[in-house]
Amino acid sequence: MQTFVAPSMQLSVVTNSNQPLKIVALGDSLVYGFGDPDGGGWVERLRRTWMLPESPGHVLYNLGVRGDRIGQVAKRLEVEFRHRGELRNRVPDIIILSVGVNDSARVGRPDGKNYTDFSIFEGQIASFLQQAQELCPVLFVGMVPVDEVKMPFLNCLYYNRDDQYRYKEATKLACREQGIPYLDIFDKWMHHPETWRVKRLSSDGLHPNTLGYQTLLENATNWEALARFNSSDHYRLTS
Predict the structure, then answer these.
(1) d(CA 52, CA 228)
(2) Helical (H) or strand (E) element with 238
(3) CB 97 within 8 A of CB 27
């Protein structure tokens, strides 16, 4: 039986050797894996590790769309979710979310308006997370810090770390209020030197490269909230 996590609860698991979990990852290009021609991104890399015959794991669907903002992911959330259960009358067990960086971009010039106004984003992220939690337990993986020197992206979008910080903190707070585990990639990467970060970003300064996605995979699989599912054992969720 599926349950979802109330604000005062955490994800918990018990062994179930008969049934792998069905997991969907929704979000933007960080989920899609753009910039990693070798491994297809961190979600694809994780999916492949769970496909090894000697170490069978869970079923993972990559539902990332490049350029998506919170409003766009919210619109497709339930439809995508309802069509990934594989078996009749089944739905996925876990949703992994990663979105927000595109909302933070400044449009047209470095001091232009944010693509999604911050006050609007705050309302949208709270509503979106509530919507997701009503479907099944949720995990949230945060954004990576950009290289501001490489902006603008596509000659019109100016990403900067100050705005990224505001939007990720709003997301982190909304997750905390709803009891959703949040992996703060931004802070993790900002604790490293600039040279370390640049080596993990593509030439556009926005998307991780192959090394960056490998690092993201390590961050995610070492994260307690996800690590409990990253084994040869199969699990189901309990309250």
Answers:
(1) 18
(2) strand 235-238
(3) yes
